[in-house]
Amino acid sequence: MTQQLIQKYNVPGPRYTSYPTVPFWQADTFSSTAWLSRLQDTFVGSNATEGISLYIHLPYCESLCTFCGCNKRITKNHQVEEPYIEAVLKEWQLYLKVLPEKPRLAEIHLGGGTPSFFSPKNLQKLIQGLLAYADTTDNIAFGFEGHPSNTSAMHLQVLYDLGFRRVSYGVQDYDAQVQTAIHRFQTFQQVATVTELSRKIGYESISHDLVFGLPFQSIDSMTDTIHKTIQLKPDRIAFYSYAHVPWIKGSGQRGFKDEDLPSPALKRALYEHGRTLLEANGYHEIGMDHFALSSDSMYLAKETGQLHRNFMGYTTTQTKVLIGLGVSSISDAWTAFAQNVKDIESYVELLAKGELPLLRGHILTAEDLFIRTQILNLICRFATQWQATDWTSEERAALQQRLQPFIDDQLIEVQEHSVVVLEAGKAFVRNICMAFDKRMMRENPTHQLFSQTI
Question: Which of 38, 266, 320, 444 is surrounded by the fewest CB atoms within 10 Å?
């Protein structure tokens, strides 16, 4: 990959966990009534066939990782656990009242924050409270995010007994200088111990999360991190690009200086080097930022065209209904999005009043749904196609003009009704998706909303 291409395409751009992306949601056409109506409509068509997904946001952490862009509350006071879980279960009850039939759960994901901040007993109370009012599909996908330094054998066993078979561990990087800069500490031995314990208990898919583009990273330090990861042979590896957005996240991403970050060229070199090492050791690149062994369900989903992407990232479960519970969680009913309030106190207060704790949302138009499908195809399958009637001649000409730079740089192949991302273009798939992003083009933002694409 040439320095010229990196400079050309290293611009701010969305990660496309949704379309439209959150900054371009239309608040003036959104209401809780409209959201619930869209949710009910989609639920009726999907519950009996594919089931629904639940995402539960557990926001507490004992210490602040200065690279993190997630919604979190830093505390060592574990008395907050039970009231928060009770609030989440109240929210679940509000949704159960409006769903037309008993939900069938295909997927549960516990994210954070740090889900393993919560005691095994309280996590058990949470999951049992969710499952008590729902059935499950035949092929459930229950997973959680664990911290290598505080996920215990009891955490793993309790969740396994409740149906969890997937766990992801946030490793980020093993280099001591990098760990100090991002204030994220765990030793290789801690990661090895919890990984092997997970296997012993019976977890079928173990993932390690790594991040490239962190302060002080080098080719040598990345080599060491990847080699250590390969030794433990996780089934999946999420290899995320660090999103430097301190204007959004405030002091939480100011634990180091901007000049401590790798240059755009080095940042991309870190990924390419990591990818080379992973692929040489049996891992396959999945989408934009994931790798998996050929035995893992994510690789099988990619091969069979079942890979999906939503607010949880890439997933093997294709459900059109995703209900987000907990502070800041985002729900997706395919034709509508809704996000909860971001402040824990407001969240609890609204639930105490019997109200869904919604902050904002978006009702998708027919155009939104068409563009959403195109972008999902690109980021999940690196190809998309359409019917001749899907675009007017003017729209098709405008799209061709926006895609022309990628054609000239031999990053994509374009036919009359299709686009295929070439191998060299996969690194720029976010940029390619932006050519389809009508909402962003119409809004034409004058200030930076997103992290750099490279």
Answer: 444
Q: Give the orientation angle of helix 81-98 with respect to helix 32-46, to 10 degrees.
A: 70
Same fold: 24-363 with 366-443:
no
Predicted TM-score (pTM) of the model is: 0.92
How confident is the model over 66-86, as pLDDT tens digits? 777 788 889 999 999 999 999
Nearest to 59 by CA among 186, 160, 145, 164: 145
Mean pLDDT of the chain: 92
CATH of 24-363, one of 2.30.110.10, 3.80.30.20, 3.40.50.300, 3.40.1160.10: 3.80.30.20
Q: Is the pLDDT of residue 243 over 70?
A: yes
Q: What is the pLDDT of residues 251-308, one digit of tens each?
A: 454 567 888 899 988 988 999 999 999 999 999 999 888 999 999 999 999 999 889 8
* Every domain of the chain and the residues it spans: 24-363, 366-443
User: Six-digit token pair at 286?
Assistant: 């999945």
Are 198 and 156 contacting, i.e. CB atoms less than 8 angstroms apart? yes
Q: What pLDDT, on a 0 to 100 scale, did the predictor assign at position 251?
A: 45
Match 């996590």 to its residue by tokens: 123
How far, in Å, CA of 145 to CA of 313, rounded?
13
What is the distance between the alpha carbons of residues 374 and 42, in angstroms, rounded to a whole number?
A: 20
Peptide linkage before 103 cis (omega within 30 of 0): no
Let me know if 230 is exposed, middle or buried by CB neighbors in 10 A (0-12, 13-18, 19+).
middle
Query: How do residues 311-360 score in pLDDT, each as one tens digit?
Result: 878 888 889 999 999 999 999 999 999 999 999 999 999 999 999 999 99
Which contiguous run of DSSP H or E holds residue 136? strand 135-146
Separation of CA 298 from chain center: 14
pLDDT of residue 311: 82
Pick from 212, 235, 222: nearest CA to 282:
235
Phi-psi region of 64 (alpha: psi -120 to 50; beta: other; left: phi over 0): beta
**CB within 8 Å of 398: residues ≥ 6 apart:** none
Q: Residue 79: which residues within 8 A CB-CB, separation 6 or more?
A: none
Q: Ranked by mean pLDDT, which of 127-141, 287-301, 417-431 comes out on top?
A: 127-141
What CATH code would you report for 366-443?
1.10.10.920
The C-alpha atoms of residue 402 and residue 395 are separated, in whole angstroms, by 11
Please count the CA atoms within 13 angstroms of the CA of 302 that sit on its side-chain side: 21
Collapse the DSSP code of 395 into the 3-class scheme (helix H, G, I; strand E, B; otherwise coil) and give the result: helix
Are 52 and 39 in contact, with CB atoms under 8 Å apart?
no
- Six token digits for residue 290: 């994931």
Report the distance separating Cα 12 and Cα 15, nearest Å. 10
